[in-house]
Amino acid sequence: LEEMPRPDHRFRLEHCALMRRDQIRRARDLGVQCSFFINHITHWGAPIEDALFGPERAAHYMPAGSAVAEGMRISLHADTPMTDASALDLMQAAVTRRAADGRCLGEGERLDIETALKSVTIDAAYHIGMEDQLGSITPGKHADLVILGANPLETEGDRLGEIPISSTWLAGERVYGE
């Protein structure tokens, strides 16, 4: 902190897998951000519920919905190469909380699509202190963005990961697509 003083250090916890509601409130009150490894549910939901924690604890595994309900700006992440880093897949996992076998782990922890979108854009940029440069399409920010083949806000939650990427732009230059 002495080497890099700034008035707004943004400390962040990664994964936050089994945080209780009181711990989420404490993190919020301390100004600590929470980032959730949400697609852990998609890939390992069945053993999380059946072999590790049981249904009650598994229902609150990666409690992103609780963090949002407590007023936190959250982000979603993947531990690539453990899981794919697709933002759309992360959104789908947060919105559906479906394991590979189709079960839902914690319906009450689901995010709505708009909140999930913010968690991989502007709120993720906020977590790294770059919301003035990244995370939204705003004049003066880096023009790093993707053009999607469908509007995620008008797509069913269980189909978000299927939305095609039409083009990718870095610093205002197209690097993929037409």
Overall 3D geometry?
globular
Which consecutive residue ranges, at least 5 long each, have pLDDT under 50? Answer: none
Describe the biggest sheet?
Answer: 3 strands, parallel
CATH architectural arrangement of the domain at 12-132: Alpha-Beta Barrel
Radius of gyration: 17 Å
> pLDDT average, as an integer?
95
CATH topology of the domain at 12-132: TIM Barrel
Helix percent reads 25-40%
Ends distance:
45 Å
Full CATH superfamily name of the domain at 12-132: Metal-dependent hydrolases
What proportion strand? 5-15%
How many helices in DSSP terms? 6
Helix and strand element order: EHEHHEHHHEEE
Number of beta-strand segments: 6
Q: Helix/strand-derived class?
A: alpha/beta
Order of strands, main sheet, comes to 1-2-3
- What is the CATH C-level name of the domain at 12-132? Alpha Beta
Features:
three-stranded antiparallel beta sheet; hydrolase activity, acting on carbon-nitrogen (but not peptide) bonds; three-stranded parallel beta sheet; 15% strand; TIM Barrel; Metal-dep_hydrolase_composite; 6 helices; alpha/beta; globular; 178 residues
Description:
There is one protein chain. Helix 4 (87-96) packs across helix 5. The longest helix is centred in the N-terminal third of the chain and has 20 residues, at 39-58. With 178 residues, the protein is α/β, with parallel strands linked by helices. It contains six helices and six strands. The strands form two sheets. It has a three-stranded parallel β-sheet. A three-stranded antiparallel β-sheet has the order 4-5-6, with no helix packed on it. The model has no long low-confidence stretch (mean pLDDT 95). It has a domain at 12-132: TIM Barrel. 33% of the residues lie in helices and 15% in strands.
